[in-house]
Structures are given as C-alpha cells and as structure tokens.
Amino acid sequence: MDKIIVQGGHPLKGEVDIGGAKNAALPVLVASILCDGENTYTNVPNLQDVKSIAILLTSLGAEIDAQDGLMRIDASRIKNHEAPYDLVRKMRASILVLGPLLARLGKARVSLPGGCAIGARPINLHLKGLARLGASIELKHGYVEASARRLKGNDIYLDTPTVTGTENLMMAAVLAQGTTVISNVAREPEIVALAEVLNKMGAKIEGQGTSILKIEGVKSLNPVSVEIIPDRIETGTFMVAAALTGGDVTLRNCRADHLKALIHNVGLTGATIAAGLNRIGVVGGKEIASVDVKTLPYPGFPTDMQAQFMVLMSVAKGLSIISETIFENRFIHVSELKRMGADITVSGQASMIQGVPKLSAAPVMATDLRASASLILAGLVAEGETQVNRVYHLDRGYESMEKKFVRLGAVIKRVRA
Ligand code: EPU
After folding, report:
1. CA angle 403, 405, 411 (to 5 degrees)
2. Residue-wise pLDDT tens digits, 151-190
3. Active-site amino acid positions
4. Which atom of ligand 1 is nearest to the CA of 164?
5. Which residues fall within 8 angstroms of residue 390, CB to CB, at 6 or more apart?
6. Distance between CA atoms of 97 and 31, rounded to whole angstroms?
7. Whose CA is nearest to atom 40 of ligand 1?
8. Is the pLDDT of residue 387 over 90?
9. How far is CA 144 from CA 100, 130, 159, in A?
10. Ligand 1 in contact with 180 (CB < 6 A)?
11. Alpha carbon of 72 to those of 28, 52, 243, 307: distances in Å?
C-alpha cells in the first residue's frame, strides 16, 4: 500500500489548479443512463471513485471512452439492471444508479451499501421517495430490488436533506409521468449542477438551489456535452493548508460562491482571503485565532471540511469547539491527530480543541477520505517527518494531491508499495 511522507515546516507559496468535483461528477456521469446517444463530459477528475463509477456503468452495458479529463459515455445499449455487491462495497455512491435504472429500464437490483467509517448512512429516504413515485421495493439477500412499469409523479418530503437521496429521486422523477414536488431537498452546488445537466438533456426541473424541487416528467432525454464544476472540497482543503502553514496561495479554476461558509470561517482565523472570479487568494495570518464551527447542510459549514478545519484549530491560539451534526462518527481522525500532539476532547457530537504551539510528526493512518487529507495537512506543520498510511482513501477523492503540494513548496512524497 502506498504511503505519503511529509516533512513539516514549509509555508506554501504559489498557484494551484483545482480539479473537477468528485461529488458532482459521480451523479452527472450516472445521468448518462437516462438517455440514448453519446454524452461528453470535460473536467472529469482522475480519481478512484470516478474509475469505480465508470466500471459500474460499463458493467451495466454503457460504452465509455476516457482520457485526460474527457469522458464519453453512451448508454444506448444499457441492458443490465444490477449493481453488484463487489462494486457497491467499494463506493457507496454506486447507489446513485438506482433511480436512473428504474426510470430507464423499469427495474433495478442494487446492493445495499451498508455503513461506513463515518456513520451508518442509511438509504431509507431514497427508498421511501422511490416508493412514493410508485416503485415496488423489496430488500432481499442484501440487495434493493425495485420495479415499476412507469414511475408516476408525486409529492415527496425528505426528513433530512440527503444529497445523494435528492440526486437519486431527481433522476428518477425526470422520466416519470406527471409532476413531482420534492420538499426539504439538499441545496448543495452538486445538486444544482446535476439539475442543470438534466435540464440541458431536456428535463423540466425548477427550484434547484432552494429546498423545494418541482420536476415535470418528460418522455425522453437527449445526450449533452457538459463541464464538471470545480471541487469545492479540494479548494477548501488547499485554503486551509495555506492558512495553516502561514502561506500565500492562489487557487485557480475554483468557485468562491460555493464556499461562503468556509471563506468566512478561515477569514475569522486571521487569514486574508481575496475571492475573485474563478480564483481565491489565501494569505496566512501571523497567528491563527480559534473559531467555533458547526457542520450543517449547504450553505452551512461542510462536513467534508470538518477534519481539515480541526487541524487548523489544533495549532490555533486558544480553545475552539467543532460540532458535527451530519454524521454520527466523523471524529475518527481525532485519535490520530492526538498521536501528533493535538489536544482534543470529544464529547458526543462536539470536539473541544485546545490549540498547541506545535504538532509533532508520527506515523498515522486514515480511515476515510477527508480524514486522510487532514492528516496530510497536520504533517505540513508538524515537527519532523509524518508518514500517512492507507493513502488509497485519499486517491478516491483528491487528484495528485502530493504533486500539487510539491508545486507549492511542500516537502512531501509518495512511496509506492
Ligand atoms: N440520511 C438518512 N437517510 C437517507 C439518506 C441520508 O438518514 O436515506 C442521513 C445520513 O445518515 C446523514 C445525513 O442524512 O446523517 C446526510 O447524508 P447524505 O445522504 O446527505 O450523504 P450522502 O449523500 O451519502 C454526500 C457526499 C458526502 C458528503 C455528504 C454530506 C456524495 C457522493 N457524497 O453523501 O461526501 O459528506 O453528502 O454533505 O455526494 C466525501 O466526499 O468525502 C463524502 C463523504
């Protein structure tokens, strides 16, 4: 297994290009299932999760051609309606094929994703929503088996604004007969991006970016050419890295309007942030001030930035409290950060972080994607050489992260297994 070795103590300086968003790419690529003909996608990030979704789509019968950020997907000959356990267990987001398969083929058999390191992550709201659209749903042998001759529009209320749940239901409803209104939907930029792609295909969706979506079903959709939006979590990770190391970094090809909560809070820590069109400049302050944050659905502070922000607070002046309200077990990075000298106490869904003057390097290992990123950030400011193990988590969601850090002056390398 690959490792990343970081020598701490080098402020980051320079410019870095942000890639396409993993969590926008996954549903948008899956949306190819909904139409005949060749869809063309650009700015597709070269990530393990994107490879996993391409393998799944290919196994369903889609034809895929991918190179250098360009992906062509033609699902005209899609015939298989099953997403097997072996693919779904590698990536929970595989559940995204459930709604589109049902809409396109009238049936879908998808392995239940199960829990993951950060929480139980049920899919009950995906299933309840599809049942409201007229699907008959059974759980058998660890699989969801869904069928419907043609889905029918209906009112759906989501008890919690689930991101992939909203995406699944949106993709099912676009081909349903009649009108669907989904209330309390997620408002993430990735939802807006998917709705825009579907509308470009000929769907009739209104309300994206608000908490109510109105979808008028259409009979068929057409293929499209679209560019994947920039990854706001990669952007945020580099912003925090710049503030943490007292650096001076400009992020290119990113969207400041997708990161208001993070920009606000990193600004409160003492960094100077200049947000322009497609660019964000971050200059670290002399000292890092402690700031309390609480993760919330968009436009609140993103749970996917909680671990990275905690590293910043670990070396801030004073005490801060970080509350995690989205996932019940998303403090798994804390024990590794403590091994690097961080002073953190977890109580339920809150972490109390007493800033320390310095972290000290250690061999550490990550159990999920954003936790891996946080350990690399910790390594950037720790005294000595940090060894981050289980880098495959990182490769699921960050493209060449260590190479981007090297260009910014960090002393970091990957050791191949
Ligand atoms: N929930 C339910 N029932 C459901 C669905 C969700 O109770 O049917 C709960 C979850 O247990 C959780 C909350 O609702 O407590 C929110 O979960 P959500 O469904 O929104 O998460 P997700 O769609 O599984 C996506 C991202 C995650 C990101 C979350 C929250 C993708 C592929 N994944 O997951 O990204 O953390 O939204 O913003 O879009 C990551 O990239 O590292 C990552 C984990």
Report:
1. 95
2. 999 999 999 999 999 999 999 999 999 999 999 999 999 9
3. 116
4. 23
5. 1, 365, 366, 367, 372
6. 8
7. 304
8. yes
9. 14, 12, 21
10. no
11. 12, 15, 38, 34
Asked if 123 and 167 count as a contact pair (C-beta separation under 8 A), the reply is no
- The two tokens of residue 184 are 């309390």
State both tokens at 119.
């929480």
Is residue 126 within 6 Å of ligand 1 at its C-beta? yes
DSSP 8-class letter at 65 = E
Q: Name the closest-CA residue to atom 28, ligand 1.
A: 304
Q: Is the CB of 326 under 6 A from ligand 1?
A: yes
Which residues have a Cβ under 8 Å from the Cβ of 165 and sit 6 or more positions away?
123, 125, 126, 129, 158, 186
User: Which sign does the torsion angle of CA 305, 310, 313, 319 carry?
Assistant: positive
The pair of structure tokens assigned to 221 is: 């959709």
Rounded to two decimals, the pTM is 0.98
Mean pLDDT of all residues belonging to the chain: 96
CB 30 within 8 A of CB 53: yes
Rounded Cα–Cα distance for residues 407 and 46 (Å) = 18
